[in-house]
Amino acid sequence: MDTLTPQELRDSFVNCSRADAADLPLPPGMHEVDWARREYLGWRDPRLPQRGYVVVPTPSGPVGIVLRASEASMRSHAPTICGWCQDVHVRRDVYFWSARRAGEAGRKGDTVGALVCASFECTENVRRTPPPQFVGFDAERVIEDQISGLGERVRRFAQAVVGVSRS
Ligand SMILES: [Zn+2]
Prior knowledge:
Layout: H1 6-11, H2 18-23, E1 41-44, E2 51-58, E3 61-69, H3 71-75, E4 94-100, H4 103-107, E5 111-117, H5 122-125, H6 132-135, H7 139-162
Antiparallel strand pairs: 1-2, 2-3, 3-4, 4-5
The structure holds zinc ion (ZN).
């Protein structure tokens, strides 16, 4: 996937209205994003602490998703593992983010949720060399596996949000 223009990024959103997509804050530094090395791009809304956005590159194009963090998960600082990067080496806040599904399912109130790093640091986490006691000698292989695992889990989430009803 090549670079996205701000308009393409806004057009990629599947679970909000056109007006909301036109109004959402663009991610900082989006023109520098190397999509070949990005399983997804995620950012928080500076005006609305509970609001997050992710854009997932998929074979059929980018899928943008509006997410909402549960208040309980924002208050809890109990250690939890992110369901996407599954990073166990650095302790960070992980929130329960939910997304309204696209189309008819979403209008009926259907959502998809996941425990994900509060500031969407997954793509950095999977590229960090793990401490040697965890991996023996083949750190590169471990990092590759982490990257492909993250990509798969994020794409699966995006598919669940899009569902089969997307026209
Ligand atoms: Zn993560």
